[in-house]
Amino acid sequence: MSGFNISIVVPVLNEAPQLKALKNQLRLLKDEWVKEIIIVDGGSTDGTADALAEEFTVIQSEKGRAKQMNAGAEYATGTWILFLHADTHISQGHIQTAMSEGAMYSWGRFNVKLSNNAWPYKVISFFINQRSRITSVATGDQCIFVRKKIFDEIGGYTDLALMEDVDLCKRLRAKSKPINLKKTVTTSSRRWEQFGMFKTIFLMWKLRFYFWCGVNPDRLARLYK
């Protein structure tokens, strides 16, 4: 197993409301496959960085998910990198699956489900996973993992205000197909609940269409917020 391990990179910014859950999850992810867990703080003002530094490696970066994940990847020493969002939950067994089943691939992702278990959210999750499988494009909530060598070769994440995950997948897809793991990670359904399912679905598709049309990601980020 030596020489075949993974660095987990977690971008954070003012995560106090979910800090306890995040720390509990990260503790459980420490195993023989995980070489290191790297927290990349984008300038938190609520004590997030200090609280996480008690148990994990914390580095500082300019604010911005792409910037933060690139900083974590540069610091990483594992043969693989897995990018984990602070509001996404992945189990320890999933890391082992990524390392064993993904051994012949350059990159991959997991299926995702929303944290709300009501049936409409299950339908949304289903279509997210089907779209991802067909297009070989994943969202950051799907815990994208990639060989560090390949990530470095393509220049990492493009510094975009939004859609940095879509952009990364398209460049990775040009090199090779991903492994689409059926194991499921869980991400927060907070945004869908707060703004409404149909309104959020429409917004997500509109943003993807605008991105495909070449609209400036800074403008897309303003629409998203």
Overall shape: globular
State the CATH superfamily name: Spore Coat Polysaccharide Biosynthesis Protein SpsA, Chain A
CATH topology: Spore Coat Polysaccharide Biosynthesis Protein SpsA, Chain A
Main pleated sheet: 8 strands, mixed
- Structure class: alpha/beta
User: Segments where pLDDT lies below 50 for 5+ residues?
Assistant: none
Sequence of secondary-structure elements: EHEHEHEEHEHEHHEHHH
User: What helical percentage do the residues reach?
Assistant: 40-55%
Name of the top-level CATH class = Alpha Beta
Structure characterization notes:
With 225 residues, the chain is α/β, with parallel strands linked by helices. It has one domain: Spore Coat Polysaccharide Biosynthesis Protein SpsA, Chain A (Alpha-Beta Complex). The chain has ten helices and eight strands. Strands 3-2-1-4-7-6-8-5 form an eight-stranded mixed β-sheet, with helices on both faces. Helix 9 (197-212) runs antiparallel to helix 10. The longest helix has 17 residues, at 119-135. The mean pLDDT is 89.
Keywords:
8 strands; Spore Coat Polysaccharide Biosynthesis Protein SpsA, Chain A; 225 residues; alpha/beta; 8-stranded mixed sheet
Summarize the structure.
The protein has 225 residues and is α/β, with parallel strands linked by helices.
